[in-house]
Design brief:
By secondary structure, the chain is mostly helical. The chain has helices spanning 4-13, 15-29, 33-62, 93-102, 111-116, 118-121, 128-143, and strands at residues 76-78, 91-92, 105-107, 122-123. Helix 2 (15-29) packs across helix 3 (33-62). The longest helix is centred in the N-terminal third of the chain and has 30 residues, at 33-62.
Length: 144
């Protein structure tokens, strides 16, 4: 099942060829116009939704521990009150680098040391930020 995200990336990389190929398959396998339109639209939406759900759930299964263990809780300094719920927690990596650049978090250790201990400090999970990037950043640009 690890090939599913790769299939999504191929489809996203070649959206026009994928849509034309899918339209041809639907045209020759469907009985009428309504059946053709239904399968032409429903299947890609269901496929992309399934892949995103798979990535979301699988990333959390592979990284279930959210607490910072041992001395690592003192490594991350949360400056923004809106992020107080993340105190003592392993941060999602995508959000952590954005929060660091914005000045919402800081580290008590040098960045090189933080990088070397990244698996103890951060969770490498699929987040809502990734979904936003796929829908608006990748698919939006492919359609537009």
């Amino acid at each position: 099942m690890k090939c599913i995200p790769e299939i999504l990336f191929i489809i996203v990389e070649f959206p026009i060829a994928t849509l034309i190929g899918w339209a041809v398959v639907c045209w020759y396998t469907c009985a009428g116009l309504f059946s053709f339109l239904f399968w032409l639209l429903f299947t890609p939406i269901a496929f992309i939704g399934s892949v995103i759900l798979y990535m979301f759930v699988q990333s959390r299964r592979e990284s279930p521990e959210t607490r910072l263990l041992g001395d690592y809780s003192s490594w991350i300094i949360i400056k923004d009150d809106n992020l107080a719920s993340f105190k003592g927690q392993r941060l999602p990596m995508r959000e952590a680098y954005e929060w660091y650049i914005r000045g919402q978090i800081d580290f008590s250790k040098p960045l090189l040391e933080v990088f070397l201990h990244r698996y103890d400090l951060f969770r490498f999970i699929f987040t809502q930020g990734h979904i936003h990037e796929i829908v608006w950043g990748v698919l939006g640009k492919a359609v537009g």
